[in-house]
Amino acid sequence: VIVPSFTVDRLAYHDNFEAAAPTVVRPESSRSLVRYGPTMLLGYTVSLDTLVYVGGDYNWRNYDRDVGPTRDSHGYAIYGGVRFRPSRLTRLDVALGWQRQDYRLPYRTPDGLYFNASADWSVTPLTLVSFDLTRDISESGSLLSGGIVRTRANLGVRHELLRTLRLEADVSLRNYRIEDLARSVRRANLGLGANY
Fold first, then answer.
1. Rounded to whole angstroms, how far apart are CA atoms 73 and 179?
2. Which helix (H) or strand (E) holds 50?
3. What stretches in the chain show pLDDT beneath 50?
4. Residues 145 and 180 sit within 8 Å (Cβ to Cβ)
5. What is the pLDDT of residues 56-96, one digit of tens each?
6. How far is Cα 41 from Cα 6, in angstroms, rounded to an integer?
7. Which of 53, 51, 50, 49 has its CA nearest to residue 39?
8. What are the distances in angstroms from CA 119 to CA 27, 42, 64, 87, 169?
9. What is the Cα–Cα distance from 167 to 91, expressed in whole angstroms?
C-alpha cells in the first residue's frame, strides 16, 4: 500500500477589539499563516484485518507578516505503526515515532516523541466508545514563543437513543509544553450533547 498526499491549510485571523476596552485593537492578524507539505505512507497488509506501515510528514509554516522575529518554520515527523481489528467490534490504530520543528533564533526548536493512537469499540450496535491519544508540535499563537508540544487525550461515547436522536459525552485532557517559556499548561474539558 502506497499513499502519497499533499495538504495546504490556510489559517486567517482578523484584528478585533478588546471586550474590556472597545477602543483598543487586538492585532490578531499577525497569527495568520499557511501550512503545507507532503505526506507519504508505505504499508503492508499482513491479513485482511492488519496493516503494518511506516510514514513521514514534512511541513512548512509561513506567516503572512512578522511582528518581531520571524516565526516561519519547517519540520518533520517519521513514524511506524499498525492498524488492526482485534475483533469484529473493535478497531485500533497505533503509530510511534519522532518529530522536530525548526525555528529561527531566538525561538527554540521543539522535538521529541511522536505518537498517534485511536481506538473504537462498538459496545452494542447502538453504542460506540472511542479513544484518541496524540502528541504533536503546534504553533503557540504568541509572539513570545514559536512552537508548543501538544499532548491530547479524548474519550467519547456515542449512543443512538432513537433513529433520530443521538446522545454524546466527551472527556478530554490537554497538556501544552511551551518551549520558549519553559512552562506547561494543562486543561480538562467535559462535554455533553445531543443530535436530533
1. 14
2. strand 50-63
3. none
4. yes
5. 999 999 998 877 788 899 999 999 999 999 988 999 999 99
6. 12
7. 53
8. 40, 21, 37, 12, 16
9. 21
